[in-house]
Each structure stands twice: as structure tokens, then as C-alpha cells.
Structure to design on (237 residues):
């Protein structure tokens, strides 16, 4: 068994507290990427951020106000990233090393700024399973079914070597079954892999995916319990 399974959740939405209950009940470690404010939705208040953190989950930054960085100059990008980090550090009295790009979008100036301000940056690229990373952390699956075509497109773009598996598994397409099948396949392989799942609690609420998520947690605990790791243990900055 040589796969590390980890989870991250973006946006700091109020539904993060419902997600926290599920994580605690199933003893799943993960990281929440949280902006200080978000014009798109209410964020969890500071004292509840502490609740998440004190329960043993990790917190990472997601800019101050959930700004799409792409197109911002270096100095502006630094301010957006650094102020988000400093906000969390003052609320939690802890150092914050990990970051995720809002919307998964970024350009060369943003990357330089992120490298100056944080230890790692998670992207929204999916179908990536490589164990090695330098600064960018790519993901295996979004916990939301964007459709078979999107999955094949991500596979073709990000990981052509996974395409034969995808094609083999996709005729009986059910997105969350496919995730489970991939986790099993990677775990059986002697090569070490990463299986990082990311999502949004508000999206899980919006699309009624709570029981699907709970089934997935039960699946990993029954089949890959020792492979489920805290984000910082897998991605050391
Ligand atoms: Zn976001």
C-alpha cells in the first residue's frame, strides 16, 4: 500500500462547521483554506475558525478577500496573499504555511508572489497523483462531479498516463465510484502516489452531497485507514 490520501476544503463558508462535524466523527484530518472575507458568501467567524483549528484540523490561507489573482501585478498579489496569511496568524496565534489559489487561477507574477509569501500553493488541477512536488500541490479529484467530459479533459491535459485507467473505468461511469476505484488502483501499485481530494462545503450543501461524502470517508477508513494523512504530513513546505 503506497498511496497517501489527504483532503482540503476551500472558501471558509459557514457550511465548514457541518463538514467539521463529519470529519471529527470519522477521524479524517484535512486542511481548510480560508479567506478573511468573501464577497460571494458568508465566512465562518473568527471564533469558529479557532474551533476548527482546535479540533485538530489544519488551516491554510486563501488570500484576504478571495481575490482571483490572475492579472494582478507582483506587488498587489503579495498584498492579497500576505494579508490573508497575517489575518489567520493573528486569529489562530499560529504560523500559516499553506495556501490555495482562489478559483485555481494564477499567472507567473502570482506564482512569484506566492513563493515570496507562503510555503506551498494548492492549485485546482485534477487527475494528478504524483508524489513529488516542489511548491505547487496539484489534486487528484474535486469532490464534485463536473461530468465525464471534464474528467477526461483534465486527464488528457494534466496526466495523460492516467487516461488508459480513466477510459477503462469510465464506461460504468459514476463519479464517486470512480474515485474509489482510483484510490484502490493507486494503493495496489508499488509506486508511491498522492491522492488529494479537494472541495467546498457550500457546494456539497448545494448539491446534496453530504451522504456521498460520508460514504467516501467510510470507504477510506475501511480500506485505506493508515494512508489517510494530515495535509502537512504529506506536503511538507
Ligand atoms: Zn476559493
Amino acid at each position: 500500500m503506497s498511496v497517501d490520501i489527504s483532503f482540503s476544503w476551500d472558501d471558509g463558508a459557514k457550511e465548514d462547521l457541518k463538514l467539521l462535524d463529519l470529519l471529527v466523527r470519522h477521524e479524517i484530518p484535512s486542511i481548510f483554506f480560508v479567506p478573511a472575507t468573501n464577497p460571494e458568501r458568508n465566512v465562518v467567524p473568527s471564533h469558529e475558525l479557532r474551533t476548527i483549528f482546535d479540533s485538530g484540523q489544519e488551516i491554510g490561507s486563501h488570500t484576504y478577500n478571495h481575490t482571483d489573482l490572475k492579472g494582478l501585478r507582483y506587488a498587489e498579489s503579495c498584498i492579497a496573499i500576505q494579508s490573508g496569511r497575517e489575518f489567520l496568524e493573528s486569529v489562530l496565534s499560529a504560523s500559516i504555511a499553506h495556501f490555495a489559489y482562489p478559483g485555481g487561477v494564477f499567472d507567473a507574477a502570482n506564482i512569484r508572489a506566492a513563493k515570496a509569501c507562503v510555503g506551498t500553493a494548492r492549485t485546482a488541477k485534477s487527475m494528478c497523483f504524483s508524489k513529488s512536488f516542489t511548491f505547487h500541490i496539484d489534486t487528484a479529484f474535486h469532490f464534485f462531479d463536473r461530468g465525464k467530459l471534464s474528467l477526461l479533459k483534465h486527464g488528457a491535459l494534466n496526466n495523460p498516463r492516467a487516461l488508459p485507467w480513466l477510459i477503462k473505468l469510465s464506461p460504468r461511469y459514476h463519479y464517486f465510484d470512480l474515485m474509489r476505484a482510483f484510490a484502490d488502483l493507486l494503493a495496489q501499485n508499488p509506486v508511491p502516489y498522492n491522492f488529494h481530494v479537494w472541495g467546498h462545503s457550500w457546494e456539497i450543501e448545494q448539491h446534496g452531497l453530504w451522504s456521498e461524502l460520508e460514504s467516501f470517508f467510510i470507504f477510506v477508513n475501511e480500506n485505506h485507514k493508515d494512508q489517510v494523512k494530515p495535509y502537512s504530513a504529506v506536503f511538507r513546505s
